[in-house]
Amino acid sequence: MIKARGLARRFTTRTGPVDAVRGVDIDVAEGELVGFLGPNGAGKSTTLRMLTTLLRPTAGEAVIAGHDLLTDPAGVRRNIGYVGQKNGAGQDQGVADELEFQARFYGLSRHDARRKVADLLERFDLRGLEKRGVVTLSGGQQRRLDIAMGVLHDPRLLFLDEPSTALDPQSRRNLWDHVKQLKADGVTVFLTTHYLDEADFLSDRLLVIDHGSIVAEGSPDELKHRVSGDLVVLGTPQASIVASKFQNAVVEGEQVSFRIPNGDRALPGLLRDLDDIGVELHSVQVHRPTLDDVFLTMTGRSLREEARAA
Ligand SMILES: Nc1ncnc2c1ncn2[C@@H]1O[C@H](COP(=O)(O)OP(=O)(O)OP(=O)(O)O)[C@@H](O)[C@H]1O
């Protein structure tokens, strides 16, 4: 669905050139839900704008939904949906009128447009809001309307730019369910986010971008496994004896922590071994690595801190 090679964008500014995206390769298979994760300013929006024909790359090439990005941008546009950060639903229109207007714009007859709108209102939980002005909708309802507008022409590939930004936790979860449903309906989804929980929950596969380059790629679980293992924390009066058995173990009072691969599976054997040498335990915890640990390992910086500072 997406095959991009060496895609790059350099901006010329008064203070000199800015390499926003430095030659990225991106592959997305049909039906995948791929998350494009990175801190503010990493190059997510610039990449997305290139992939959706809104910005011409300064180098590289791509085939999107079967059409060449550089030689057939109109073909690309016909076959994709794009939901930007601030979408263009006409502010003083009613919800159903707005959708119907767009459907007619895509060339549907009045009859087909009405059928399509009814279907989308149902799918995106917007029934009962047909006559409401777009401005009067809640944040979550507006985002669902934006996405409904993005899939009016039944694209097989949908781009979502930071879909849940500025939504409250409940509306975010609800929106995520709708995004998952799009995937279940067979739509390939490429979404940018700087939220770790969103990337973790939604993505089959993640691309992590930092300073314009892709620094990691894999399923959320694969990426977490790549970090130096799960963190095991044991409470024991013999903490230093336990620490002597594991590399890089850290002792704090009656607590010892260390990382091991596949902690949940390794734990029973490990506890038996400690029991055999007479170690007494009063607590056991295993923490899986988070995507933030992944980012920290790849870049030396915490994505969580970056997001908070933004
Ligand atoms: N039109 C422009 N002119 C000059 N520099 C730009 C332009 N657009 C983006 N940049 C720079 O390119 C880099 C990447 O920006 P981009 O918006 O792609 O990042 P992002 O990962 O989408 O960030 P955010 O999460 O804040 O949207 C940043 O350093 C940004 O300042």
TrEMBL record:
Primary location group: membrane
SUPFAM superfamilies: P-loop containing nucleoside triphosphate hydrolases
Claim: Signal is one of the keywords in the record: no
ABC transporter domain ranges (all copies): 2-236
Protein localization: Cell membrane
Keyword ATP-binding listed: yes
Gene3D superfamilies xrefs: P-loop containing nucleotide triphosphate hydrolases
GO cellular component terms, semicolon-separated: plasma membrane
GO biological process: response to antibiotic
GO molecular function, one term: ATP binding
Keywords: Antibiotic resistance, ATP-binding, Nucleotide-binding, Transport
Topology relative to the membrane: Peripheral membrane protein
The protein, known as: ABC-2 type transport system ATP-binding protein
